[in-house]
Structure to design on (64 residues):
């Protein structure tokens, strides 16, 4: 089970780093015009990670 936890954490970290690296590339005008998109994407990640952890906790509590 510890392997599964480690895989989830690794996937989350790789996803966040990849997203930040991708959003860092591009021309200046695009980056300035879409700064809000990066904030929105960060909020989406926060919600998805929270929901994933809640779902994992429910699964462990009731099905393991």
């Amino acid at each position: 089970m510890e392997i599964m936890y480690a895989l989830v954490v690794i996937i989350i970290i790789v996803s966040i780093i990849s997203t930040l690296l991708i959003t860092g590339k591009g021309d200046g005008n695009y980056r300035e015009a879409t700064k809000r998109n990066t904030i929105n994407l960060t909020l989406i990640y926060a919600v998805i990670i929270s929901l994933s952890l809640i779902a994992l906790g429910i699964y462990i509590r009731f099905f393991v």
The first helix runs from residue 2 to 24. Residues 23 and 34 are 9 Å apart (CA to CA).
